Amino acid sequence: MTYTGIMNGLLIVGGSVIASLILVAYVRKLFSEETLRNSSDLIGNVLSIVGTFYAILLGLIVVDSLTQFEGSIDTVQAESNCVADIFMLSERLPDPYGSHVRDLCGCMSIKSLTTNG
Question: What per-residue confidence (pLDDT) applies to 6?
Answer without folding.
Answer: 80
